[in-house]
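Researcher: Let's continue the batch. This sequence belongs to DNA-binding transcriptional activator GcvA, and it's 126 residues. Same format as the previous ones, please.
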Amino acid sequence: MRQARGLTLTPRGAQLLPPIQQALEQMGEAMKRVGSHPDTLRIKCPTCSMRWLLPRVIQLQNDRPELRIELTASIAHGVDFSTEHFDAAVVFGRAPDSPRRAHHLFDEILTPICTPDFFGKECGEH
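Model: Same format as before. Here are the structure tokens for DNA-binding transcriptional activator GcvA:
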């Protein structure tokens, strides 16, 4: 039903939602199994790390042309291997508490940059 602040389910829609969600999840899992290639490496990476990772992925592809690489850029900074179907990931922060192997890649240096007008407006300088 359409309301001022968006849409809401009808009572019948609310009854149908759980089984439909379950069916869609099962279809998604089946598609992943059918569409999965054995020689595929699936990597998740935050968008801001792409500049570092992409040349290495290209070199890996050149060294191993038989390997299919699927690279997913994400604004999310973590990965849950139990629910996300990736073989590897680049994440921010400490290594997760899990039996998986993790390697520290580099220390991050951030430099915020803005226009003088924005700085004056946002930092109280008039």
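Researcher: Any comment?
Model: The longest helix spans residues 11-35.
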